[in-house]
Specification:
Blueprint lengths: L3 E3 L7 E3 L2 E4 L5 E7 L6 H14 L14 E7 L11 E5 L6 E7 H12 L3
Parallel strand pairs: 4-5, 5-7
Antiparallel strand pairs: 1-2, 3-4, 6-7
């Protein structure tokens, strides 16, 4: 599966996705791992997701051929400071083709430690 997105034209932004897989149902899943907070993860996520969604439709084909595209972010930092959840799922709208999951390792570790020590 091609991990390169963008770059069709000379001045286009080109990016390399960490892991891209296609399920048996032909859904696309992009898994991104980010260790340091560059303060652009939400915009980067939407960019990667949109490119992966867009690239599955060949010229001249109908939009009905578009299949769900899922993004899973595994971050070693807190992405959403107002949420104590270690796993969050966001949708563009109800049951759409946009499915973005975020896993905040720092929050998971804190929850795990508190549960482990009974605190």
């Amino acid at each position: 599966m091609n991990q390169e997105v963008g770059g069709e034209y000379l001045d286009d932004k080109q990016s390399r996705l960490d892991i891209v897989v296609r399920t048996q149902a032909n859904e696309l899943i992009n898994v991104e791992m980010q260790l340091s907070n560059q303060h652009d993860m939400i915009k980067r996520t939407l960019y990667y997701w949109s490119r992966l969604f867009l690239d599955q439709l060949p010229k001249g084909k109908t939009y009905r051929r578009l299949l769900p595209t899922i993004t899973i972010n595994i971050c070693d930092f807190t992405l959403f400071s107002k949420s104590a959840n270690y796993h969050s799922t966001y949708h563009l709208y109800e049951d759409s083709s946009l499915n973005i999951g975020c896993l905040a390792l720092a929050q998971f570790t804190t929850i795990h430690e508190n549960a482990w020590y009974g605190g």
